[in-house]
Amino acid sequence: MQNNHMELKFSARSQNESFARVTVAAFVSQLDPTVEELTEIKTVVSEAVTNAIIHGYEEQEGQVYIECSIIDGNIELIIEDQGRGIENVDEAREPLYTSKPEMERSGMGFTIMENFMDEIEIVSRTGVGTRVRMVKFLKNHSLAKH
Amino acid sequence: MQNNHMELKFSARSQNESFARVTVAAFVSQLDPTVEELTEIKTVVSEAVTNAIIHGYEEQEGQVYIECSIIDGNIELIIEDQGRGIENVDEAREPLYTSKPEMERSGMGFTIMENFMDEIEIVSRTGVGTRVRMVKFLKNHSLAKH
Amino acid sequence: MSLQIETAVSGDTLIVRLSGELDHHTAELVRERVEGELDRNRTPHLIMNFEGLGFMDSSGLGVILGRYKRVTAGGGRMALCSVNDQLLKLFEMSGMLKIIRIFGTESMALSETGVA
Amino acid sequence: MSLQIETAVSGDTLIVRLSGELDHHTAELVRERVEGELDRNRTPHLIMNFEGLGFMDSSGLGVILGRYKRVTAGGGRMALCSVNDQLLKLFEMSGMLKIIRIFGTESMALSETGVA
Ligand SMILES: Nc1ncnc2c1ncn2[C@@H]1O[C@H](COP(=O)(O)OP(=O)(O)O)[C@@H](O)[C@H]1O
Ligand SMILES: Nc1ncnc2c1ncn2[C@@H]1O[C@H](COP(=O)(O)OP(=O)(O)O)[C@@H](O)[C@H]1O
């Protein structure tokens, strides 16, 4: 399996959440992930993209950026916005913490990303934006051959 | 139906041809196109992306760029490469013309794009790259409501 | 739309069956529809059936917890059923399994909420 | 891989059944496999069955025309069958309908190529 790379940019609109999931899943499926791995990847894409739309841009105009790389059969995923940023990343990562309880947010987004991925790195600056970088090691990656 | 926009960039590798088709189809399906319209869009994406990979980059390293916009319920599609470019665009557009008959190319790519889309514009400069811009008017676009 | 919502009433219980994909884009639909049905039918109890659900993320957790709060605030009971492995993992992570009961089928869930 | 190729021999005819997606990425597989089978079986005639094919673009036209040239150069006949509307449009646009015959089913195609 050779390395491979894609970048996606789209309007920060809720109907693009499913589009983002489908696109990353289509790219990643060349590695023959298990159904479980694919569902986990779709879920973390959904979490990070939803955060960019709701929290980053507060449902105003904006662009969401996704980068996905296949490196030695593993997946690196970067999801980025140029929105308002996170003041306290440690607090944001706490399970059940949400700044928008009135919107029925569960505060589980980052916890799910941490659970479903092998590495996560959050870089955020208020007024500049947020960048979430995640890595997932696939179980059968040494078997993948195309 | 609000306007919507996405941009995609990926490695010029043949396994990304199907990825490009799936991604554009997923984005465009928010307009509820007919099966026929969706197949036509997938086909022109495949033609232009394949051309970028085979002719633009001659199967060497490179990046393919896709832009897709939904404007008033219609589709604008731009597929671009920074490859070798086309010397004579008029000749290239002729049905059955191919510069790579030894690769069993049919020379039908541009003819298919012209037939399946409502507008096509090809801008190319040798040594700089090629940009194909196409527009498709969807039949039921006035009915689309999401 | 990528989410379908079907509702039914059995005795004192509103049953909500979801199929398709439940994310932030579609969660609002669920919230409005379930609130509307609870208001209209005046049923104290609620069952959510996830049999047809192909995808859910934390926006789904939020909408379920929101309904749980309303139902229990009114003295009702809430149960979930037909939950696949992916959903179960999300429920577990969020601690929801400690407060909302999950059943294999709708009728098993009904035998729980149905008893006044 | 997103393309499956199945082959069979009936009398003097090689039958190739394609399913999945035929594009530039998968066309090479078809070319190699069909060339290999024609060499091995020494059948003069060729039928290509597209019943299971979900997608094809002009790279598919190229690989079909390439096989047509080989088969007719050796004095054989070639036929296509189970072609859906999308494929038919591509065959029509390229002028292929004027040189290669298309049949509804494999057995109808065989009754054409099968007669020596
Ligand atoms: N892209 C982002 N831009 C700004 N703030 C964010 C972003 N992502 C997350 N946050 C902040 O981190 C908090 C926790 O996020 P998360 O765990 O996904 O829960 P939730 O989205 O349910 O609130 C959010 O409530 C928000 O305050
Ligand atoms: N992106 C491109 N970069 C360079 N040359 C191109 C590109 N696209 C098309 N061409 C030229 O135009 C010709 C006709 O293209 P097309 O109609 O798609 O037929 P085919 O791909 O089968 O050759 C090609 O053979 C090639 O010479």
From TrEMBL, chains A, B:
It catalyses: L-threonyl-[protein] + ATP = O-phospho-L-threonyl-[protein] + ADP + H(+); L-seryl-[protein] + ATP = O-phospho-L-seryl-[protein] + ADP + H(+). The keyword Transcription regulation does not apply. GO terms for biological process: asexual sporulation; negative regulation of sporulation resulting in formation of a cellular spore; sporulation resulting in formation of a cellular spore. Coiled coil: none annotated. NCBIfam families: spIIAB (TIGR01925). Residues 36-140 form the Histidine kinase/HSP90-like ATPase domain. This is Anti-sigma F factor. Binds to sigma F and blocks its ability to form an RNA polymerase holoenzyme (E-sigma F). Phosphorylates SpoIIAA on a serine residue. This phosphorylation may enable SpoIIAA to act as an anti-anti-sigma factor that counteracts SpoIIAB and thus releases sigma F from inhibition. Signal peptide: none annotated. One of its GO terms (molecular function) is protein serine kinase activity. The gene is spoIIAB. It comes from Tumebacillus permanentifrigoris. Its EC number is 2.7.11.1. Belongs to the anti-sigma-factor family. Keywords: ATP-binding, Kinase, Nucleotide-binding, Serine/threonine-protein kinase, Sporulation, Transferase. The keyword Glycoprotein does not apply. It is an enzyme of class 2 (transferase).
Automatic annotation (TrEMBL), chains C, D:
Residues 3-113 form the STAS domain. In the phosphorylated form it could act as an anti-anti-sigma factor that counteracts SpoIIAB and thus releases sigma f from inhibition. The lineage of its organism: Bacteria, Bacillati, Bacillota, Bacilli, Bacillales. It comes from the Bacteria. Belongs to the anti-sigma-factor antagonist family. GO terms for biological process: sporulation resulting in formation of a cellular spore. InterPro entries: Anti-sigma_ant, Anti-sigma_F_ant, STAS_dom, STAS_dom_sf. GO terms for molecular function: anti-sigma factor antagonist activity; antisigma factor binding. Pfam families: STAS. This is Anti-sigma F factor antagonist. Gene3D superfamilies: STAS domain. Keywords: Phosphoprotein, Sporulation. It comes from Tumebacillus permanentifrigoris.
